[in-house]
Amino acid sequence: MSSVFTKIIEGELPGRFVWSDEQCAGFLSIAPLSQGHVLVVPREEIDSWLDLPDELAEHLMTVCKTVGQAIDEVFSPKRVGLMIQGFEVPHAHLHVWPTNTIEEFDFDQVDKDPDPEVMDETARKIRGALVAAGHEAHVPQD
């Protein structure tokens, strides 16, 4: 059975994409730690990040850095957080989000009902920053 992330990547479930390439996709979390929280997910279903082939792990980190730079440009946070915890979905994924405090690393603090219009605008802003940085080939259209 496909993971929820595979269903999002394949279009079976809706997603607000900011990145797409042959190896991975980046889309907004439906339960964000803060506005601009992106999940970077390999297309291949691999449960644990420890099982990722080295080349794929390196690619995911490169995409996280690129998306993180766009998040930094859009939100100007004190830091851009990066976390791998992987308890919710058995499909490796990396969390990238704007953060201003250590308390914003607490998954008990997620927004379980984010405003859809704010989410749409957030995705547009991150995509715009990625395009402005020259990554248009990997930025999906609305």
TrEMBL record:
GO annotation terms (biological process): methylation
Chain span(s) of sequence motif Histidine triad motif: 91-95
EC number: 2.1.1.-
Domain HIT stretches: 4-107
SUPFAM superfamilies, alphabetized: HIT-like
Keywords: Methyltransferase, Transferase
Pfam families per the UniProt record, alphabetical: HIT
GO molecular function: methyltransferase activity
InterPro entries recorded: Histidine_triad_HIT, HIT-like, HIT-like_sf
Keyword Secreted: no
Descriptive protein name: HIT family protein
Organism this protein belongs to: Kocuria carniphila
